[in-house]
Amino acid sequence: MSEPRTIPDIIDAVSPSIVEVFSRRSRASGVIYDQHEGLILTTLQALSRRSRLTVRLADGTSSHARLRGIERGADLALIQVDDINLPAPPPWQDAAPRVGETVLTIGREPESARVTRGLVSAVRGPWRTRGGIDVQRWVEIDASLPAVSAGGLSVNLHGEAIGFNSRRLTRIGAALPPLTVRRLAERLRDQGTRQRGYLGVGVQVIPLSPPIERHAAGMLVNAVDPDSPAGRAGILIGDVLLSLDDEPLDVSRALIDALSGRVDVAATLTLLRAGQVQTIQVTPSTRKRARHAEE
């Protein structure tokens, strides 16, 4: 491990590998992943539907980028530029940081880097995101995480990246560890976006009072496509979906996230029917045109 440096020296060394990523209505930071292939990691915050992505480097050079793949469960996207030379990627520190260690969060604004300072307040894990992604550990930092810092880095005082910044995985923000980031980045490079499974139901979130088996809310089924995985599995209008393979279905995007990557893979669906908790097996398929879709 290198000797600690001054904070301005660290920013000077690391910030060229952090870029600005923006579209017509969205903006965030990005991190150079492979300078030779032109690959950059960013957060879903940077993406806007049907809008062209632009990458701007620290020296002001800019280029349009194309999307290689997204992993919604980790708030991660891999994009690629072809016509500009990228600086070298940052050094990553695979070992877990120590609680109490000073950390800098670095993002990219149009004029300069954006930096905040804090401490590692907790290191927890392993952890599974609501979208079904296994994370080696969760690094909680007590520094503020401005919107522009999402998609940037958290670095230690040796100038090594200890995590990729996200504002969407937890309410307070989190830093995805290097091993998880590289694993997901390689999958996106090789395979692109994971397909999301299609179930074939219309749902709405409702509270459960009293809670059912620790579930305070569930998803009321208000429509079922009979020619769908849900219809063939016997899901009925009026059922309340509680969990899919133990992932709670208690907020509006929970079912969409739980179906990420689940295509032609059997899953256990726990539901409430006529006051009784039941489990059924269902095999989500690829999405098709239908009258009703998961919400």
Identify low-pLDDT runs: 289-295
CA-based gyration radius: 21 Å
* Total count of helical runs of at least 4 residues: 4
User: What about the largest sheet?
Assistant: 6 strands, antiparallel, barrel
Order of adjacent strands in the largest pleated sheet: 1-2-3-6-5-4
Portion of residues in beta strands equals 35-45%
Secondary-structure-derived class: mainly beta
Helix/strand order: HEEEEEEEEEEEEEEHEEHEEHEE
Q: What characteristic shape results from the CA principal axes?
A: elongated
Helix content: 10-25%
Output mean pLDDT. Answer: 87
What features would you highlight for this structure?
disordered C terminus; 11% helix; single chain; mainly beta
What report would you give on this structure?
With 295 residues, the protein is mainly β. It has helices spanning 7-14, 178-191, 229-233, 254-258, and strands at 18-22, 27-34, 39-42, 53-56, 62-71, 76-80, 102-108, 113-124, 127-128, 134-135, 138-141, 153-155, 161-166, 174-176, 201-212, 215-224, 240-244, 247-248, 267-273, 276-282. A six-stranded antiparallel barrel has the order 1-2-3-6-5-4. A six-stranded antiparallel beta sheet has the order 11-8-7-12-13-14. The longest helix has 14 residues, at 178-191. It starts with 6 loop residues before the first helix and ends in a 13-residue tail after the last strand.
SSE map:
Layout: H1 7-14, E1 18-22, E2 27-34, E3 39-42, E4 53-56, E5 62-71, E6 76-80, E7 102-108, E8 113-124, E9 127-128, E10 134-135, E11 138-141, E12 153-155, E13 161-166, E14 174-176, H2 178-191, E15 201-212, E16 215-224, H3 229-233, E17 240-244, E18 247-248, H4 254-258, E19 267-273, E20 276-282
Antiparallel strand pairs: 1-2, 1-4, 2-3, 3-6, 4-5, 5-6, 7-8, 7-12, 8-11, 9-10, 12-13, 13-14, 15-16, 16-17, 17-18, 17-19, 19-20
